[in-house]
Amino acid sequence: MKRSHPAWTLALLLALFAGAAGATSFVMVADEALVDGAEVIAQVTVESVEPAPIAGPPATDYFVQIERLLKGYVTGSTIVVRVPGGIGPDGIGLRIWGAPEFRVGGRTLLFLAPRTDGTYGVLHLMLGAFSELEVGGRRVAARSLAEAVAMPFTGADEPLRDFAGFVNWITDRAGGLNRPIDYYLDPALVDFRPRRGDRELLEDRCTQLNFRWSGFDRDEAFKWSFDGGGVDGRGGGRGAFLRARRIWKRVSAGAVRFQNAGAVRGRAAFDGFDGVNLLAFDDPRGDIAGRFSCSSGGVLSLTGVWFDNGRGQSCERVGTGHKGSHAGRPYLEILGADILVNDGAACLLAEDATLTARIFAHELGHSLGLAHAADPRAIMFGEVSEASAPERLEATEVSALGGLYDSPPSR
Fold first, then answer.
1. How many CB atoms lie within 10 A of CB 219?
2. Which CATH number fits domain 208-404: 3.40.50.150, 3.40.50.1820, 3.40.390.10, 3.30.420.40?
3. Using the 8-state DSSP alphabet, how is residue 202 labeled?
């Protein structure tokens, strides 16, 4: 007998620039599970931000001053929080939407997981980062869960949390006192209209352009490889990925051409720009802090794109970059893309091939540069469930696809 699933939300997260795609899938984690799962919880102030001085995939380091430690133990009063994505020493950048970004001087509440290199990762990526904002005279703890302009979050409403009340509740729970949640604010009493400066929690990182795969202009297909181990270690999920690619070919009337480049073994997603567009499983390097669980949620998958905008780690000009324009708008060329499925996701993806194909189709749409659609019937709608049928393009998607590529399909 087939088990039913709740709606598995694919939310648009932290797309920093108008029209940019958001490409991180997650199932919401309850505040109780966040507290219980984090080894360290701290109220911090961001002192500085630098490119991570490491070999391998680009990452960004935030040096944060601990104001108040709510759970766990750290050495010293300043720690380094490492977030995946950034610009590498060679000028090649990796944009991972959903990776939290913070402004220097800002106060943030972080749920953290220690890494083996001495840095810390944000638990469940953006789900474990709450920035302090002042709204209507109140100090509010808010997460960046829906940052794409004109692409509102379509899942359940994210509650506003009183910052001090949330901190006190966390302290009590971490100390063993489990009391009811009492820090949610009535949205009717708080005028929460975040300014762009509130929502973009970091200065310009040299990528104020949309992304576009220009290979179609050269009659090149977008070739994708599949991790041979699959979601279950035995190749599970390959059929769902093939179906996801066929969905795009059909609904775009051939304008979008995803092609099978075969199975690979022993390659990790985001492991440097290697010319291989890869769907990988089980997060072998720990890029995502926190395991996915069908009972408590978490980050399900990430999509990232590789680019070269001609600037280095400090935004200095180092080359001409890979840029272009289409329909009168400038774009950064997508050099390649990777999709990383989190450890533990087999509990969902190995069970329902139809739902898995719809999730993969959604993520492939993000790899093209598409953001979320408002129509619940659309492939790029911000929520995927068994009850939905996102195997068609709606008017907004037809328009968006035409804005990025030639010959937009008819509906």
1. 7
2. 3.40.390.10
3. S
Q: Are 243 and 226 a contacting pair, CB within 8 Å?
A: no
Q: 185 Cβ partners below 8 Å, 6+ apart?
A: 138, 140, 159, 160, 161, 162
Total residues belonging to the chain: 411
**pLDDT tens track for 213-255:** 888 888 889 999 999 888 888 888 899 999 999 888 888 878 8
Distances (CA, A) of 80 to 51, 77, 318: 12, 10, 27
- By three-state DSSP, how is residue 256 classified? coil
Helix (H), strand (E) at residue 70: strand 59-71
Amino acid identity, position 321: G
Segments making up each domain of the chain, as ranges: 9-199, 208-404
Parallel, antiparallel or unpaired: strands 24-27 and 298-308: antiparallel
β-pairing, 160-162 vs 184-185, is antiparallel
Q: How far is the C-alpha of 281 from the C-alpha of 178, rounded, in Å? A: 35
Note the pTM of the prediction, 2 decimals: 0.84
Between CA 123 and CA 127 the distance in angstroms is 7
What is the tens place of the pLDDT at every residue in 175-205? Answer: 999 999 999 988 776 655 544 333 333 334 5
What's the first-to-final CA gap in the chain, in angstroms?
Answer: 36
Strands (E), 272-328: 278-280, 298-308, 323-326
Helices then strands (H, E): number in the chain?
7, 22
